[in-house]
Amino acid sequence: MNVVLPLASLCSQEYEHGTHECVRHVLRFRYMRLGSALVISGVALAAQSLDSSGDGNLFGDYFVREVMLSKVDQKTSAVGRAFSATGIITFDGQGNYSFTGTLMDSYSDKSAAISGQLGEYSVNASGLAALDDLIDNTQTDFGATGLFGQAGAVSIVVSATGGSQKNILVAIPAGSATTNASLQGTYNVAFIDFLQGNASLVRDGYFTLQSDGNGMFGNVTVAGAMANLGSQNTTQNLTDISYDITSQEGSGTISFPPLPSLSTLVAGQKDFFLSADRRIFIAGDPTGFDLMVGIPTLTETAANTLYQGTYFIAGLENDASNLASGQNAVDAFSGSLFSLGQGTSIAHRRLATFQNPAIDYTYAPAPYNLTSGGTFSDGMIRGTLGAGGQAFLEVGTGTFYSLIPGLAVEYTGPNPFLDPLKVWNAGNLAPITNSVAPGEFVSLFGSGLCTATEGALSLPLQTTLGNVQVSVNGILAPLSYVSPNQINVLVPYETSGSYATFQVSSDIGLSDPVTLYVAKTAPGIFTSLAGGFAPGVGPAAAQHADFSAVTQSNPAKSGETLLLYVTGLGAVSPAVKDGAAAGANPLSNVVADVEVSVDGQSAGVSFKGLAPGFAGLYQVNFVVPGGVSPGELVNLSLATSDARTNEAKLYIK
Fold first, then answer.
1. Which end of the chain, N or C, is less packed with Cβ atoms under 10 Å?
2. Spatial separation of the C-alpha atoms in residues 87 and 171, rounded to whole Å
3. In sequence order, what are the beta bridge partners of 316?
4. With bands split at pLDDT 50, 70 and 90, how would you rate the model's confidence at 147?
5. Which among 515, 536, 518, 519 has a CA at the least distance from the CA of 643?
């Protein structure tokens, strides 16, 4: 049933401006309701070389710890080989690095010294980063760097190439004149440990360390779980934990009691590294395959507004729920999370598993409500916010093992300023690390971008509006709305290659360029703001076959065909000109495969293409499957071969 009609009936009274006007105002008003926090983030993609415009921002000595898993049994998903690398990586500010440290390999069960190993890296002006992997230099790790605290750049990078190895790497700036007395105060700590390089012996957990500035942490209680002991959440009391910083740069050891490792969450001596500003540390067993990250605890009473802005994230995870059958589901990712400070957040991961190629995955984490101490939980993940909301740590619970550090970062600049963090998918507000696709509507945010406030009143969309132009890889893009703080732009279908660089030109001048990754598709489902839902997270912009909106009072039901409105589905056939209205005869069909699921159940797609009469608006018709949960706002997911979006909801009768 290929029902294709305009969107006017989707709009609330606030947006009742007719066909194309309705879409324009949905894009406009949704984003002007967001706060003004300025932050930065990045993404991971396969087999690409970043531009190097920001290489000079990454310079000097950094402490680094990497854990890599390899050689997975395709039948059981059991990890057959693991590596760890620890030491100092020195960046020259020109795209080259050297690494000196140690490499541990589970095959040999021995550590080997590495001295002056050379590699290359690249960082763009937005903070997106790539570097040759420390352990396997044939592999490129992707992630982000950014300003954190007062110490300069902190880098979190994760392999997401979809190859045979999955890893997490954290690097922090080394300091000077560091002693035991330099480590003062209380730190939240989280860890993951693939004991003996074996996923079936994985454990994770969290604890708090309070330093006396004289080499002692004292007694602590560690909470976590161990796969080999049934993955039961447990706590263990450890006594007389000490540390010793032996180099002026800030490296040394932290010593836990030498307890039996198979039944202990944390044991033995770890290499320890403190950042130059004392705001983050990393640690790990020099002969093991663990990573420990510490951040200062809150000094104020937490409120949801403290958890706000964009955070770079990286993670290494293992779902051991099927361990009884010998299976471990390992994944690694890098990405970003944008938190609205209202209990709602939107996240992106460039997610890779051993079984499937890497994809862009955007989703809405479970709503959070911070305790006074800054903790939050969704039943599967337990998180802790650090001092000033500048960082957080997450670990898994029960059979789900995970370590996710997140760092908040912030950029400002002179007008006209295009915020490197806020080039967003217009449908789902996917954070900055998400790719952009040809034909996608995006919203650009900044300050002093132009002096005009003007919206396009007719089609085709023009490349000049209110004396404003936006180029994407040098090609002028169609514009639907311009203002000093926001510009809505349609990515030209000609956009190709690995990257898309956006730049605004107006009567004020030329903005800074902002570069993002490019993918064939970057789907985002339009959602409604009705009922107090946050932008990007809420009821999908969907219609019944009679073109009435799907709402709580007019829900969908199993077996009926719905019309869903999306952006970012990429190339269509027959093609349309940039900014032009799509035709109805023939319809322009999406080239990529598109799948829809409702409440986890696959839904049959009967049409996927551009909505006639609109520019840049895609429509997907699907049949609501049986077996969905009635009377609820259930998850609605849309996927292509290289991306999945999972923020939207659907009312079901």
1. N
2. 10
3. 332, 403
4. low
5. 519
pLDDT at 140: 82
Beta strand 632-639 with 649-652 is antiparallel
Region 571-587 average pLDDT = 97
What is the spatial distance between Cα 317 and Cα 331, in angstroms, rounded to a whole number? 5
* Closest-CA residue to 248 (of 180, 184, 177): 177
Of 420, 413, 376, give the one whose Cα is nearest residue 395.
Answer: 376
Cα first-last separation, the chain: 21
**CA nearest 19: which of 9, 29, 31, 7?**
7
What's the pTM? Answer: 0.90
Could you tell me if 41 and 310 are in contact, meaning their C-beta atoms sit under 8 angstroms apart? yes
- 511: tokens are 């903005």
CA gap 615, 492 in Å, rounded: 11
Give backbone dihedrals phi and psi of 20, rounded to 5 degrees, phi first.
-65, -35
Task: Please determine, for residue 163, whether its predicted confidence score (pLDDT) is greater than 80.
Answer: no
How far is the CA of 54 from the CAs of 95, 121, 146, 394, 515, in angstroms?
9, 11, 11, 29, 11
CA-CA-CA-CA torsion sign (359, 316, 49, 356): negative
Q: In this predicted structure, what is the pLDDT of residue 531?
A: 62
**Contact at 8 Å (CB) between 157 and 129?**
yes
Mean pLDDT over the full length of the chain: 87
